[in-house]
Specification:
Layout: E1 3-6, H1 11-22, E2 27-30, H2 40-50, E3 54-57, H3 64-69, H4 71-91, E4 95-101, H5 111-114, H6 130-143, E5 148-154, E6 157-158, H7 165-175, E7 178-182, E8 186-187, E9 190-191, H8 192-204, E10 209-213, E11 219-220, H9 221-232, E12 237-241, H10 261-267, H11 274-284
Helix pairs in contact: 1-8, 2-4, 4-6, 7-9, 9-11
């Protein structure tokens, strides 16, 4: 079975590439220069040539504030391209694995009471910014494509590759004596190695549909930053502030935890501990390369 990884140069794509190499599983990785997933004709001609049995789509427009200004680009990558990939899979008996986000939910603070374990897979889709809206549109087009699919939502994604919150806090912690981090946005992180391993297990066992992959616990970005600094041994002060201190273009959800009980039940696994996952990640990061 041929595997194609799109967005292979991103933080999740690179994790998939590393995993498949270690597992000695044949695959083809493509970046933007190899496959323009926003060009329908290019998608069709390239996929006809490669003829993959599984497409793992790690490509996404993830700039939350940028999406408010660059709506056309966000829509092309997060919605239209998903339709092109899924459409080809549906016509060629292939399976598509696609990643989405906690930002498809409203993130209302009162949802912390309504969903104490986090948003389940079937919770109401109601994004508060265009990034979330474009990802939700991608989910809809995928679900209506007729293709066999795995739709996997992740939250607060961090890994050894690419840019992410963990690396940013470590880098700024080295450079500054004090960092301000918001404490009124709550969720839980997903680590790329865990996301890839669990996605692969779902594929191995023939599962399809929607799944959430994240970690146990509920924390704020401030809580996360404090633990990042502690585990990395960096000396800097983390100051909790409200979201009002940061003039973001896009609104952020106050609560965006994902309920992962479905994948835990189906794969007979325990929920990952976010502190243990963070400790493992920090050990993989070369602080001199930040």
């Amino acid at each position: 079975m041929k595997i194609l990884v799109t967005g292979a140069n991103g933080q999740l794509g690179q994790e998939w590439v590393k995993f498949l190499e270690i597992m000695d599983i044949p695959f083809q990785g493509t970046g933007r220069e190899d496959l323009d997933i926003t060009d329908h004709d290019h998608v069709k001609s390239t996929l006809d040539k490669l003829n993959p049995g599984i497409i793992i789509n790690c490509a996404a427009y993830t700039n939350v504030d940028g999406a408010e200004k660059n709506t056309t680009t966000a829509r092309k990558v997060n919605r239209d391209a998903v339709g092109y990939l899924a459409g080809w899979c549906g016509n060629n008996s292939a399976k598509v694995v696609h990643y989405s986000t906690d930002y498809v939910f409203s993130g209302a603070s009162e949802d912390e009471v309504a969903y104490p374990d986090g948003y389940p897979e079937n919770a109401l889709i109601d994004p508060v910014n265009y990034y979330g809206e474009s990802k939700a549109a991608g989910e809809k087009i995928l679900s209506e494509s007729g293709a066999d699919f795995l739709l996997i939502r992740v939250s607060w994604l961090s890994g050894r590759y690419g840019k992410n919150f963990v690396k940013t806090i470590m880098k700024h912690g080295i450079q500054k004596a004090q960092l301000k981090v918001v404490d009124d946005q709550k969720g839980s992180p997903t680590f790329t190695d865990s996301a890839v391993e669990k996605s692969f297990k779902l594929l191995e066992n023939g599962f399809s549909g929607i799944y959430h992959i994240s970690t146990g616990g509920l924390l704020s970005w401030y809580d996360y930053a404090v633990e990042i600094i502690r585990l990395s041994g960096i000396e800097t002060d983390i100051i909790p502030v409200t979201s009002d201190e940061f003039p973001f273009v896009a609104k952020r959800p106050a609560f965006s935890k994902l309920d992962c009980s479905k994948i835990c039940n189906d794969l007979h696994i325990e929920m990952d501990d976010w502190k243990a996952g963070l400790e493992m990640l920090i050990k993989k990061i070369d602080i001199n390369q930040l």
